[in-house]
Design a protein that fits this description.
Thioredoxin-like_sf, Glutathione S-transferase Yfyf (Class Pi), Chain A, domain 2, about 60% helix, about 220 residues, 4 strands, alpha+beta, glutathione transferase activity, 2 domains, Glutaredoxin, EC 2.5.1.18
């Protein structure tokens, strides 16, 4: 079985997918690609992803190509359901809470980081106060979410924690955001350090991403 993940750099999305595969105990091959430089690969890549935007996942066992990160993560959980266990429980209420956190990460938490940092990194523009406050608000919302349970969506570690962990590491490592003042986030983060497989590699990957971003500024 060969599962490939084509990526441009070790983004938060790539790291969330990798954390999920590590927790499931399955191997995904990370394949760096630059379709602007590799013209021979570009035509092949477009067949997999008409948006031309890495990351792009390809399952060689059935020819399935996916390019939306959350869809890739959910596919892995469904494909390897016998391994997923409490990561993505079948209970509809519990799963609804998990899905809600996945949408929160996409539309609020990770989006706030992008809105503040990406114009600085990719366009050389100064950070805006409004988008900085957006990040602060997102962290406060996460702090509140973590006041209810030990883990984000309930009493057990789930895929919601893995996805949000990748984003928190983005704030903490790539964006150098001080998260130590958030008591609930820090307690949860320390639990992740103990129970999440691939935690250390996720941090190292974020550091490599940070160095790349510094070169782009």
């Amino acid at each position: 079985m060969t599962l490939n993940l084509h990526h441009l750099y070790e983004s938060v999305d790539v790291r969330a997918i990798k954390l999920t595969s590590d927790q499931l105990g399955i191997n995904i091959k990370l394949k760096p690609v630059n379709i602007k430089k590799d013209k021979n690969f570009k035509a092949q890549f477009l067949k997999l992803n008409p948006q031309e935007l890495p990351p792009t996942f390809y399952d060689h066992t059935n020819g399935l190509a996916l390019w939306e990160p959350k869809a890739i993560i959910l596919y892995l959980l469904d494909k390897f359901y016998d391994l997923s266990g409490e990561l993505y429980p079948i209970d509809p209420e519990y799963r609804a809470r998990i899905n809600e956190i996945l949408f929160f990460d996409e539309t609020v938490f990770e989006k706030a980081f992008r809105n503040f940092w990406y114009p600085q990194i990719f366009d050389g523009k100064p950070g805006k106060f409004e988008t900085f406050k957006e990040m602060e608000s997102a962290l406060n919302k996460l702090e509140t979410l973590l006041s209810h349970f030990q883990w984000i969506a309930g009493p057990n570690l789930t895929v919601a924690d893995l996805v949000v962990l990748a984003t928190v590491v983005n704030y903490y490592i790539v964006g150098e955001k001080d998260i130590t003042k958030y008591k609930n986030i820090m307690k949860w983060y320390q639990n992740c350090e103990v129970y999440v497989k691939g935690f250390d590699e996720n941090v190292k990957s974020a550091l490599r991403c940070k160095k790349l971003f510094e070169l782009l500024k």
